[in-house]
Specification:
The chain has helices spanning 6-24, 48-56, 112-129, 135-148, 153-176, 198-208, 221-224, 261-280, 288-294, 298-306, 327-337, 353-396; strands spanning 31-35, 38-42, 73-76, 79-83, 89-93, 187-192, 211-216, 240-245, 252-257, 316-320. By secondary structure, the chain is an alpha+beta fold. The strands form four sheets. It has a three-stranded antiparallel sheet with strand order 3-4-5. The protein has a three-stranded antiparallel sheet with strand order 9-8-10, covered by helices on one side. A two-stranded antiparallel sheet has the order 1-2. α3 (112-129) packs antiparallel against α4, α8 packs antiparallel against α9 (288-294) and α8 (261-280) runs parallel beside α10. The termini are far apart. It holds the Pfam family HTH_animal.
Amino acid sequence: MGNPLSPMIADLVMEDILDQAVEAVPFPIPYIKKYVDDLFLALPEDKIEMVQELFNGQDENLQFTIEREKENRLPFLDMVLTRNLNQAITTEWYMKPISSGRFLNYRSLHSFSQKMNVAFNFAKRVYTFSTNSRDNEVESVIRRQLLINDYPNTLISRVINRVKLRRQEVETAMEANENRPDEGETVFRSLTNIEGLSQQIIKTLRREYPTRIATKTTNTVGAILPPIKDKTDNDDQSNVIYKIDCNNCDGCYIGMTTTKLKTRISGHRSNVRSLTTLREAGHTNSDAAIISIREKTALVDHTAENDHVFRLDDVKILDRTQKPSNLPILESCYIYNTPHTVNKRTDTDNLNVVYAGLLHSITNLKRTRTNNQNRTNVNITRTNHTDTIITDHTTHE
């Protein structure tokens, strides 16, 4: 569980066991299909128990159970398979009795395109798996399940019509044997869903680049529920953006590290110690040895220039990411948006003008909110003070 290799390893194990079991069966199995660990077999009725014993004998840790057809019907994955009199198989969409029928709710904090995709793909699955149902029966199933998840009736009708139209287009293309033209390489990226902003960015990117953008929400289960695992100490965290304040002025240093934070801070301490050793040996800032150390980081450069001391024992983590490739852009954003940084301005030279504009807007928005909050607090204080004076005056009279 949790390992990206687990599904592939599980599938390989199942393939190996299935090959051995099929070879052990003394007659050819008329029909067999596998999906991960679910098997669908057609067997003579008097051979079912024998085949089950042969399958269970391959590995004592893996035991198979059997579900027989009832009234020529058998559920398999999201379908019910029906065996007709002519031995042909037709299918219907199937949902387990214990299923609540809940999926992405229409009132959730996801983008509208995600909700539409969920509804469309659900409707497409129901149509695809229902080979022996009339269209009105299929539409009734789709409408009922989407209403459970608060999708409006008008939107459900749009989804159903869209699925029908897409099916007709696919059938027409197959009959004409048309091949989809090569549209070139498309880049896929994800973007946090921000109402009123994300869609504008997506439209701009679509006009300029062959890019497909998928929006995502930050309101995840992991953000709501407390973590089950023990929290990793800040010193042991990696792929982070960190901030170190200067003890002698308002300046601060912002940096990034792909290694553990304590390893990176140890490097800063080593640079400061080397600077101190050279100073004690009589070297000045114009000497080559000190110039070489000052070029390593803006932190040690500020220390050498102003004889200031940074709070290396009080490092703050500003942000973290699972992708180390995101660190440079995150660092540039924090340097750009943080006042009084000692970082060199060249650290933000590679920041695209689009990001710079957005960060400037965010800074102005934060400043406006802070000013409004301060004015509100002042008004509350004045109101409370006035109430006190009136009360005192009334009491005196």
